[in-house]
Every structure is written in C-alpha cells, then in structure tokens.
Structures
1.
Amino acid sequence: MLSEKGLLIIEKLAEHNNELVTSKALAASTGMSERSVKTYLKEVADFCEQNSMTLDRKPGKGMKPCFSDAQIGKILDVAGRRSAAVSQKKRQNYISYILLSGWDTYTYALFSEELNVSKNVIMDDINELDAELLLYGIKVHRTAGYGIYATGSELDIRKAMRHFCRYPISDKQVIKTDDHRLSRRAAEVIANNFRSVNLSMAVDMIHHVERRFDIIFTDYTFQMLAEYIAIALFRVDVEKELKPDELDLSNRMCDVANGEDAGTETEQQVQKNGFIMTEHENMAKEAAGFLERYHGISLSQPEIMYLAMLFSCAEGQNRVVMSCEEALSIEDEMIVYLSNLLAANLIENELLRESMRSFLPGSIARTHFGIEIDNPFLSDITQSYASLFTVCFTVSRYYEKYTGAMPSENEIAFIALQVGGALHRNPMTVRAVLIGAAGYATGSIIAGKIENRVPDVRIVSILSSDRIEHIDEYDCDLILSTIDTQADIHKDMRFLYVSPLISAQDEKNIRNKCFELMTGQSAEVSEFSQMLSEEFIIFEKKAKKRKDVLKRACQLLINKGIVQSEFARDVLEREKVEATAVGCNIAIPHGKPEHVNRCQILVIRLDKPIEWGERMADMIFLLAINFDSVNTTKAFFHDFTKLLNENGATDRLREAASPHELCAAIRKELGWN
C-alpha cells in the first residue's frame, strides 16, 4: 500500500503518462523536497512492480511512466478512496482542535464517523496525541458513557492550540491578508479555527502598538503575535480566560536566574539579570485599550499581562525593543564559543553582535515561556547549510544555562543564519587553483564564474591536466578540478571536483568546502577517530519509533560503561522538546556532558527512514560527547561537517551492508585510512 506521499507522486506520474519526468519536477509539483521524492520513489517503484505497471527509469534524464488506461484508473481509484479518508496529520489536527476547544461530548464513534476511519484508527490517533499533549501539560481523559475530553491550564491550552491546530478545520479562503508579514496559509488557519474577526482585531492591535511605540515587528514575530493574540481573543470570547494565579507575573527570567523577587523598576529599566520590562507592559495596556475603545472588549489584568509576555517575545526591525543582562551575557558566551569552534574571528564582528543583540532577548523570552515561531528559512538552512546548522545546534547549552529550557530548531536556524552571514563578511579569502583540460581561455571563463558566484574564492592559478603532479608548487587552500581524475590528488583534503558548467550543486559544494576550510581544518582529527569504532555501529531493521531506537542505543552505552543511566533520560527529554534531525536524513541526539564517562559516538543505521520530529532519519549519530570541551566538540564537528558537505558522501555511507563496511566507509570519506 502506498503512503500519502507515495500516492501523491504516482498521481503526478499518471498525469504525465508516456512523458519524461524528473525528480526535480516532481518535487516542484508536490511541494516536497527532491530528497524526499527520491526516497518515496522506491516505494512507488515497488507498487508499480507489484501491479505490473511500467516505470522506465532513465539515469540522468528522469523516469517515464508507461501506464495503461486501466492502470491509471486503478491509481485514480486508490487516490479517491484515500482522499475520502483524512490524512493522519489532519485527523490529529482536527481531534486536537476539538479536545482543546473543550467540546467534551465527543466519542470514538463520533470521531470515526466524521473522519471516515475506523474506531481503532481513532484510538491509535488519540493514544499518540495523549503523549504529545502531555508535553504541553494537557491530559486526555476517556470516560465511559461520557466521552473523550482534555484538561489543562488555560495558558497551556493556548500554547497547545498554536502548536497542534496547524490545518484549517473548514474551507474558508483568505484571498489577501491584512499585512504582508502574515502568510496566507497562517491567516487561513487562524480565520477557520479561531474566527476571522479575531484575526482582524489581533492585526489591528499589533498595528496600533507599532504606531504608538514607533516600532516595526519582524515578519516572523508579527505572525507569532497575530496567531497567539487571535487565539487569546477566541478563548476570551468563549469565556475561557486566564486566572490570576495561572500567569505568575514574578515568574520571569530574573527569578529563574537569581531566585529573587522582581522588585520595582521605572519605565525602560531592566533589572539585573531580569526580564521585567515596563515597555512591554505599556504595549500590552495600549493594545488592550485600543481593543476596548474600538471593539468594546475589555480584557482582565491577567489577559493584559499575557499580552505583555507575548510582546516580550517579539523583535523589532528598526530597533531593539528591550535588552537584558541575560541576552548580553549569552551573546558574549555564544560568540566566544562559536569563534573557538569555527576558528573564525567573530568576537570583533560588530554586525554579528548587533544582529544577535536584536534577536536574543525575544528568543530567550520565547524559549523560557514556551512561545513558538515559524522560521521561513528553516528548510533552506537545514538542507543547504546543514553543517553550519549542526554546529550552531550546540549553542542550545547556553539557553539551557539561563532559561532551563531547550530552544527550538527555528531559533537555532536564525542563529545559523546570522553566523553564516558573519563568516561570509569576514575578510578571509580561500585561494584556489583550477585544473582543467579545455585550455587557458575556457579555464578563465570557468574561474570567472566561480569567483562571481562564490565571493570567498579567488582563483590564483589555472593549470592544465599535465601539471597535476606539480600541484605542491602552488600556494593554495583549495584545488578545484573539472577533471574527475584517478590520480592520488583526489585524496588531498583540498581537492574538489566540479563540472565545467559550474552547476548549482557545484556552487553549493564549493561553498561548503570553503566553510570547512575557513572554520579550522587543524582540529584534532585523531581525537574524533578515537570516538568511532565498529563495536559502536548498529544496523537496525524494521525500526518504527524514534523513542525505541534511542532507548536501545542508550542502553548499549550504559552497559558498556560509556555513560551513566541518567544519559538516556537526557537524550529522550531533549527529543521531546526538539527533534535533533539536521538534514540529509541524519540526526544527532545527545545528552548532558556531566553524564558522560568517556567520549564515544554510536552510529545507528536504519533500513528505512523513520519520522524524527518533523523530518525523517535513517542514520543516527548518538553523541556521548563533552560539549563543554571546545577541542572535543571541534574535533567532532570538523569531520562531521565533511560528511554533510561532501557531495554524495552520506549516500555512499548508506551503501554499506554491515557495521564493518560502514566504519570503513566513514574512515575512507574522512581520509583516516
């Protein structure tokens, strides 16, 4: 049976019957990544083989479906039956909405009838949701003769609504949003689930605050404010208001850091190590006053303080709303740590400091209060800059230090974006030699393309193929070759093959190689090599759940004395808060360094990708590493980023059929042999 994505792909193939179709075209038409398309094409190929359907694969060109009319009819029939039943994500979205809205008369039978699936499917959905909702403080109850309902604090219910209700429950369309910073998709979700009028009022309130305080909120925090405020207005409208004891006004960052009372402060003043910011409270009062004057809705004091909390989680494009000593301290510690880890001088980069100073106060508040944002660049960053994202993942330890909470991958991706920009602004240039077989004139054209597209690179020499053996005579950091040579030079860590056309993939590979070179190739490679051994490589078949895979892996490390028993709890707790998938179907789960007895990396190879949060993973690097040690961390990421950056490296690792072969493949890719 085909999965939802497999069915979507084969429908598109049927639409282009007897035509050549590329995986890139399928990705564009289905809204999936090209990597995901290639993964699900295996499933589609199996389906075609089982049903005697011809899918002609033409390497380098694409694939050509040659289906009969009867076979196309069968595909449409399968699609019709599948579309009659709602996908699992949308089912769980609907069930979450009903339970969180407090409609407690629903039963398994009623959900089954409305969603056109069996009661057993509904039971499985609710069992999964029960575990996920618990992370937000929401408990699902099943009472015979009464129904299924959920309980939790009003504050937790609002956070859960934002997280779980991500699909519209009806079909009201939004043609144009009231502000370009609010996406149509987000507007449709809010309008359908929490009423259009609440969305309009939320946007009006934010606009009023912007005018009154001369501030322009960033795109992603404007959308965050619109979502959470609209949900708050929806809850107030159904008489589900915050209680005075639910929003502890003293429970701010200052108390987390100091254990002290908030005390008093004047306008614009920030208490030592504190997040008590009068300006945010003034914003909330202005927004509430506007709502009462123009819409006749009066908010209680807890609701006004809830607005203040939301405004403390927002950033302005034109100025820093409010800084705090937490943010300044984290900024310094993060930049020093990343400078050491990346072997780059980020400490004196004022543009990076300025962007971090603007971003961190809101980011820290969001992490502390559990407020979520959507990063529009997340997918691009994790796919195109997986290595940098992975390195920046380690700064989550500073959030934990000051807030006691883990930042989301959306927050980490913004830091990666800022650090990436700083690296590109650094004056360091990679000196490259270009080797080709087409003559100096053609080589000059290729060199010009490279320098135009990758500003970090300066071509210092253009050599013909007969000069390969004399490459050591040239002072260079990078060797680019349009010849896929079999000479020993391809073993040189500076070597990179590129096509004469300099494709988008070539450009990406060059950028990644530059990143590797500019971030310190002098790491203690031998230290990382000692963390990897065949004994700690596992091949798992028929794995289905991330939690089960991690439990078994952690137990192996515990049994071997590598980590303490608390390490497993750390790993699972981190995954509950934020999945550790970093792109390329790879995940890097890890625990706290204080529970590591000695550094070790456990590699887990799955026969099929499984869900890892919002992504998929089939190769897991479980890190028992002391991230407090810059040398150890640098040693790991120096080589790990090579695996992510090197074109085709992870695919070659997946070809290994045993722990011995995989260990040998990793060593070969990293040049340890």
Note: The first strand starts at residue 54 and ends at 58.
2.
Amino acid sequence: MASATRLPLKSITFTTAFIINAGVSKVSFRNLAISTFTRPESYSRIIAVLLVLANIKNHRVFNAILKHCLFSLPNILPLIVLFIFFFSVITSSHFPLTEYDYNFYKSNSTYFSDLDVICSHLLCAFLQPYNKKNKLVLDHIILGGVIYSFKREIGIKSKDVDERAIFAIAISKYIIKLSRLTIHPEVSLNASGLLPPRPGRWATMSGPSGESTPETLEEAEGTVTPESETSDEWDWTRIERENKRGLKFATHFAALDGLNQEFTGSQQPALGRYRDFMT
C-alpha cells in the first residue's frame, strides 16, 4: 500500500491514457480476443484474468488510494492541523459472499483485508496533504503488526444493525522507513508540521525506538491546568497527554513481542506436525 502511495499517480494515469488512446485505432479487438482466448495455452490466461478480477480486496485498496491522491484531495483546515491524528476516519463497505464462512458469518481472516482498506484511507488522508511539500511518503510506511479482538459476528443478512455496534477492535503498528533507516514517528510528524512547538528541545533518536522519555511524560502530567483542559488550542502538553492515554493500550500490544521466545521448535516435543492439502 505504501509503495502505491508514493508513485506519481497523476503522471502514470496521463501516460497510460495517452498510450491507450494512441493504440486504440490500430488494434483489432476482435482478432486480439480470438488469438488470446482460442490458443491451446489460453486456459491458463483465462484463469489468471479471472483470479485477478475476483480479488476484490485489491480493487478496494487501490480505490481508496486513487480517491485520496487523484479525485478527492483532503481539505484540512489550518486550525485543526495540529491534532488531526486524533480524529477518526469513517469508511463504509459491503461484504461479498466470498468473505463468509460455512456458518454464514463473516470469516475472521477477512477482517485483516478490511484493515488494509481502512489503513489506505487513514494514511492517505493523513499524509497526502503534506506529501508534496515534505515528501513524507516517498519511502515505505510498513505495517509492523496487527492485533484483533472480535466483539460481535456479522451475519449474511446483517442490514438492520445499530450503527453504534462494535464488531471488532484492532491496533496496528506502523514503521516509517527512510531507505533502510527507521525514522522515529515524532521526527516525521514534526517535519510535516503536525506537532506544536515542544518546550526545551526535540527528542533525539538516541533512545529506544518508539519510547518517550519518562521525564517528558511526568512534566506533561504535572503541568495540566484547568485552562489547558478547556482550551481549544492544542499545545505540546495536551498532545503528550493524549499520547500517554493511548500508550496505556499500546504497551499491552508491544508486550506481545515477547511471545516469540515461547516457541521452542524441535527442542521440545510437539503435539503434531500437520500439512495443508496444497503442500
């Protein structure tokens, strides 16, 4: 998804349209279709085309990217720029029959496909307005991990459902790359003008990645005043306070990285080793 976001989509679209228009008059579509689908090896081509067209998730992901980058550029007011990453992104979708399991409920694995689409909307809406100036997404933004918690099943006829119903909760971890170098999120957000001035100095990348200094959090917590609570302005103290509130949930997600030490491989007995029918 990040690779598609950083492409020069307008130039690619113009070039593709020019080539198609130039070649339409010289191509006999009837002869082309006959030669493509009547040769002995045409069955594999037909199957490949059908598989590509049937992968609805790809259409949904690129539809989100093209909408934000070409057709409906986000218009974010200057007054709310400093706290747009605390806003919600609302999307709507319909689930095809291929996403339902044998119980006629939406399959758990398909929630991750929906998350790809939602993340496409989120990152494009968040970064696209500033990408021309700051070149923030010329390099990769990698999905480092996802955790899902299922709350309610989605049936095949779930139309009249309360819009406040929660079906699943997910937390995603993203990694911002500059070539092979991992960039601290605070550095990227500050370079894009999405953070207010910080008292003192900016944090360096000498500490562990993704961690805020305890002194900063304690200072932010200790300087809360009634005026800052009711003010509409988002200063560094309020940003840090919201960040700390979210870290209460994110730290539990980060703790799951220790589970990779629990797998012993062949060092201890296993219940069994099973193969999929395709392997």
Note: The radius of gyration is 24 Å.
